[in-house]
Write a structure and sequence with these properties.
3-stranded mixed sheet, mainly alpha, 1 helix
């Protein structure tokens, strides 16, 4: 056999390439899972801050009072909080967004101040008296 007639890779060469690919995969995959978590947290923070801002706009246009239910942000209202006649205020958001952690847009109400989140049910928890709003998840309620 001549030196120039080599036709393929040796087993050792193939194993080295496989080991290098495994090391690279082990280094890259955890970064993707962290970026997914970071994206969910960033989206959650953005949604919380946006909804809080719209609650403040609602309050400014309705005599200093927050809506009795969070879904009132999605409809036109009168200054007295009613929806009869030809309301001119709002809507403040198109829809209540899903929370980015669980994908739920369920809305729980609370009368506690500050809101006490317990569990991981997801969605939103809202206090109509104080206007406080949080993600209803114990790991993400500090936004």
């Amino acid at each position: 056999m001549t030196k120039g007639s080599r036709q393929g890779f040796t087993l050792v060469e193939v194993l080295i390439v496989v080991v290098i690919m495994a090391v690279l995969a082990a280094a890259i995959i955890p970064q993707f899972t962290d970026s997914t978590k970071d994206a969910k947290e960033s989206t959650g923070k953005f949604n919380v801050h946006s909804l809080r801002g719209q609650l403040e706009v609602y309050r400014a246009q309705h005599g200093g009072e927050y809506p009795d239910v969070l879904t009132k942000l999605t409809v036109k209202t009168n200054a007295d909080h009613t929806t009869t006649g030809t309301p001119t205020l709002g809507p403040y958001v198109r829809e209540i967004p899903d929370d980015s952690v669980t994908g739920s847009n369920a809305i729980a109400t609370s009368t506690a101040a500050p809101i006490a989140v317990s569990g991981t049910t997801g969605g939103w928890i809202y206090n109509a008296t104080t206007g406080e709003l949080r993600i209803n998840h114990e790991d993400y309620d500090t936004f």
